[in-house]
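[Automated response] Your request has been received and processed.

Submitted sequence:
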Amino acid sequence: MTGPGRRNGNEPPIGRRMAELRTRRGMSQQVFADRIRRSKSWVDKVERGVRTLDRLSVIETVAAALNVAPDVLLAGKAPREPVTDTGGDVERLRAALARYDLPAGGKPAPSLAQLDAQAGYAWTAYRNGHHPQVLRLLPDLLCDSRAQQGDTADLLVRVYRLAAQVLVKLGEADLAWLAADRAMTAASGDPWRTGLAAISLAQALRALRRGRLAMTAAVDAVHQLDLAPSHVARPGGPGLTGTLLIEAALAAAVSGDSNAASELTERAAHLADGEHRDHDGIAFGPAPVDLARALIAMSFGDHQLAVAVHRRASSGDAWHELPAEHRAAHLIDIAHAYLDLGDARAAGQALVAADRIAPTETRIRPAARTALTAVLRAGSTAADVTRLAAIIGLTRHDGPSCCGPRAPMI
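Generated structure:
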């Protein structure tokens, strides 16, 4: 019988492969444990087969630290297909968004509590950068949430806005706008739900280069929150308001309005006296405000300022407290700033750093592929950059050398 740590009789257990790869890279168990934020004892037990390594999120973390694709760790050989193909999952999500009928009977419908727990799990996967996993969860989650009886407004807003945000990353801006619009409809005029939905709507509109509309959506949501009675307010209110102001500032930058971008950023900075989070991944504080300042500087062509602000913001402890998705997405955007400065080496290292934090964030986003292609075309590359390109399946002759106008994500 095949045990949990062995795929078949001819392949070594996953723990042994982990040990072999770690040794090849010259890492001690302690160094490797520090990189994946585990104990040396945990590493030792996995390598000896005492503990199994069967959670996808942990496998992805281990693979990233070893600079290999998860399939290499799982199967002991390089995958034949690129790890960046999400086309089928996107089509399933597209079909789910296009459905207006209720699912036919035949299987027990999940309860509202079960669906809420599934949505929370999907958001956790998103924050950790496990976007293919989110794409696989969303179609059924969307259909089941629409069919659920009772007060489902909070649930529908959570699910629709998650769909919108992951679709923006995949370059599916029109489909993201549809999902975000559904979230706004589900919000039913409630200021808090509308504010959450407006974050995703603003991101989708920025991706469509509709900066003015994105800014208006975010600012109007802030206005509704400001006017809401005190009993409507929920914990983390400053975080929601601050995140909306950041989205509005980024949208103003997309539309070329430097005065509005500066004013909105300062308003956000005024609220950023600490970290405020809700369970759906809003992270707000001084670090996110500074990251937004860097992206705004990029929008106005001041790439040196963007890099300087990025380095300052990413050097403190607050940077490491941000979700993996947020950090990796920002590094991908900053890679474009380095390219515009003619520093392909730094751009490559930013992409490698993003891949270590959240591999699928780097490997499925068109913006990351474009930046990596530009790095390859610039000349000789470091070994870790070449390795990343090989994993994704890129060469110096693939794709355009620049991405054209972009809407940076945070």
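Summary generated for your ticket: Strands lie at 276-277, 283-284. Confidence is low (pLDDT under 50) at residues 1-11, 76-83, 399-405.
If you did not submit this request, please reply to this message.
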